[in-house]
Write the structure tokens for this entry.
Amino acid sequence: MAKVREVILGVGGGIAAYKSCDLLRRLQDHGYQITVVPTPASLNFVGAATWEALSHRPVTSQVWERVDEVRHISLAKRADALIIAPATADLIARIAIGRADDLLTNLVLAIDVPTLLVPAMHPQMWKDPATQENVEKLRARGFTVMEPAVGRLTGDDFGQGRFPDTQIIISEFESVTGSIKDLLGKRVLVTAGGTREAIDPVRFIGNRSSGRQGAAIARAARDRGADVKMIFANPQLSKEEINELSGIDLLQVETAKEMHTALEREFPKSDLLVMSAAVADARPLQYSEGKIKKGDLHDISLVENPDILKSIAKLRDKQIVIAFAAETNNDLDVAQAKRLAKGANILYLNNVSDGAIFGSLDTEGFILTSNGAPIPVPTTSKDTLAELLLDQALDQLG
Ligand code: CTP
């Protein structure tokens, strides 16, 4: 499954440039991050200020701007896909012969990602053998070039040359890139990390959960179009890993109680809850305001934390709930009983014997659902498991 998130929107110098503003907005609605690269000519129709305001990103059209960033290369490296809309006859011709006379054409040469061109021009210009030859050349090189729509043009003329409907462009784009937005419109709530229960100002009861699995699920759901909220307890992630959570609504909590309160508020607003957080099973009966002397540490009374998932699952309306179980054996019957007891639709049983899984990039276990045999998950990345769990959830969401 292709992960397409960073998209470059190249804009050629035709009147249809104004329609690309709507294309940009709708692509954003689908969860894509867009950088706009207009040709200098297109700025006559839609100015850089409009693109910057809509994309919330800097916009340049020549290689002579922001030279320190070497933008044609840095943008090429970051992008997962390229759409050129509208592609004018001139722009198509320049790309066909490999010209590099503005930022966009430099970028086209420097980039190696799925590319969709959306031509829009006067029907005579589209039909002209020179344009048709150039289009064939581009198609032979692996670019996808859409057919312009048929209809009325800017003046009184009628024919094939119109900019297609935004939705048709987006469908074509998603089939070209293989990206799947099957969670579009769904609200996904993910808990991650490990709660900490303070003993005194310096000590706590906690666990080894890094939050990596929850982060992988949140990213995967976001990339599949969902609106994602994450309740994150004490993330143990690098700055880069935190940056990768852009577009996800992050709420940080420390204790099981804080997580519980946040879930009570957010769960009713969600369609899917993924409870991947490792909740501390117990907390100190009493918090000590002063640091406890080491000689007194042998006698800390604990009290059991409430089972958050169990109580939240009871509030469910139509939500699908995914639970996690960390066990040091692979007892499927015990895990299935745990799934039922917690009121979860799906449970991922992971084997954490010998300190495996926690903090690691890989996972191994079984997916249990209410129907069918347990699905074994041989050692795989947490990203892949995230996709597998979302596939299962989607089956049940209908
Ligand atoms: N969980 C929870 N509240 C708790 C403990 C766990 O909501 N107080 C959730 C976890 O987020 C996870 C699932 O319950 O999704 C299973 O957690 P696990 O620790 O395996 O189960 P426990 O109920 O703690 O049972 P055990 O006695 O086996 O540790």
